[in-house]
Amino acid sequence: MALLEVKDLKIKFGGLTAVDEFSISIEKNELVGLIGPNGAGKTTVFNMLTGVYLPTSGTITLDGQDIVGKRPYDIVSYGAARTFQNIRLFKDLTVIDNVKIAYHKQMKYNMIEGIFRLPSYWKEEKIANDYAIELLDIFDMKPYADSLAKNLPYGKQRKLEIARALATGPKILMLDEPAAGMNPQETKELMETIDLIRNKFNIAILLIEHDMSLVMGICEKITVIDYGKIICVGNPEQIKCDPNVIKAYLGE
Amino acid sequence: MKNKNKKSYLINGLALVLLFILLNVLIKNNVISRYYQGIMVFVFINVIVASSLNLTIGFLGQLALGHAGFMAIGAYGSALFSMYIKEMALPPTALLITSLLVGGLLTGIIGYLIGLPALRLRGDYLAIITLGFGEIIRVIINNLKITRGAHGLTGIDKLVNVTNSFWIAVVVIVILYAIINSRHGRAIMSIREDEIAAEAVGINTVKYKSMGFTISAFFAGIGGGLFAHYMAYLDPNTFNFMKSVEIVTIVVLGGMGSLTGTIIASVVLTALPEMLRGFAEYRLLVYSFVLIIMMIFRPQGILGRKEFSINGLIKHSKNIIKKTGDNAEGGEL
């Protein structure tokens, strides 16, 4: 069975059906792209998958477990992590603290153990610290560990957001327009980062993107939506030639 | 990391003991008079109450304006409890500590209950609802029989002195510091930074918000209990809105998100009005003037979000020495 199985997802805001009959299935270690013109409902789909919105109907199964109606922080422990379209870092905290906060759920010591600095505190804090340093090292961000997140350059902030999402130990990583606002050089670097994640972490990635060079370059499977409905599913070559897709992007 | 931390804990512990010995010597030799000792106790009470509020405002990032209400619950709760168990003839310290804990726990429970609905709100709305709850608490105390309403509560044992209030303040600060520098504290700070992102990385924001708020209320209750057992008399109107504002002022002046800043601001803002007593009516004017000047030149508060630390100071001075040394060498060339 697929890692993420979404069937007939539908959401209505009042009288407006924003997303309808949305289905997608993502296998382990697969990289899937979700594209569509502005306002097509991509981010709405994301918000339903991560528990921000409650779908009107439909099912979402992650690794065999139904996650519809779960709170966002709960869905994280089922194994879905996300980044945001407009970067949302903990700006006034250090880079390493950003990562450690995401590691929160893997740490088990309780407040009493924390206050009295019992051995379990030292042990788990050390594990968290080592883990965070290791993770930052993978993304070449170790030198920035102690600087404030807001002081990083834009591309590095994106990387940190991805690293933070990975620190939650996800099975699937959802990236919401990671290349938004990036120049071609940074986009290229981002592609390398995504490749790196796939090689090192063995997780599935769902990618929303506007930047066609990025999507066509790295995705194996692409789903195109327009006005909340799927208009085409296939590999990059098929998508490029599909008349419905061309119509949606360029008009008649 | 571990050893370095433990060393710094040791240094700070030693510094505290030295400070305590210094205070005691000064008191013994009558350098610090009774009057100043009284001010010192108020400083320690303010340190406790303001740093507990700093957990809500500075670390959790939620503006709460009803802290005097929590202080009142702690004050009345612990005072009534200590009067109730007086016959058991406990030693004074034990009596003080148990009644403080009872007052603190009572405040924590009520804080939790108030926090559940209130923390659904944010920013100005939360400020107003906490302000409202603070006033409700005061009005209820004013009308209850058991608290003797507006007559005020008398007959409380005076159990607090410079020594025990100093050490209780130390314990409170240490606990708050320990919480902030643990996974729970990081979760609390992540809510201040970005609530949506915190949820997205697996932080149960509702849980940690009410946790922060409850701890904050608990320690405000402890501070209130100290106040009760120092004054030996309680009047509900002590805990009015102006008291809440006073505590918020300490937090803002010291720096939201800095415990050491709160300590410094508590000393300054408790001592300042006393020192200005000579100016009679003008002292409130001077007091506000000092605050305005402060907000113009240092809006983030005395320490901002930084913490003052002995280690940091040593490092800093080493850097300065190194720099001047480098300059001197440069001069020779």
From TrEMBL, chain A:
ABC transporter domain location: 4-252
Q: Does the keyword Manganese apply?
A: no
One short Pfam name that applies is BCA_ABC_TP_C
One GO MF annotation is: ATP hydrolysis activity
Keyword terms: ATP-binding, Nucleotide-binding, Transport
User: What InterPro entries does the record tag this protein with?
Assistant: AAA+_ATPase (IPR003593), ABC_AA/LPS_Transport (IPR051120), ABC_transporter-like_ATP-bd (IPR003439), BCA_ABC_TP_C (IPR032823), P-loop_NTPase (IPR027417)
Name the source's superkingdom.
Bacteria
The terms describing its cellular component in GO are: plasma membrane
- Name of this chain's protein: ATP-binding cassette domain-containing protein
Q: What is the organism of origin for this protein?
A: Alkalibaculum sporogenes
TrEMBL record, chain B:
Classify the source by domain of life: Bacteria
Query: Where does this one sit in the cell?
Result: Cell membrane
Q: Where are the transmembrane segments?
A: 9-27, 39-61, 68-85, 91-113, 164-180, 213-232, 247-272, 284-303
Bilayer topology term: Multi-pass membrane protein
Keywords assigned = Cell membrane, Membrane, Transmembrane, Transmembrane helix
Citing just one GO molecular function, the answer is: branched-chain amino acid transmembrane transporter activity
**Name under which the protein is recorded:** Branched-chain amino acid ABC transporter permease
Q: From what organism does this protein derive?
A: Alkalibaculum sporogenes
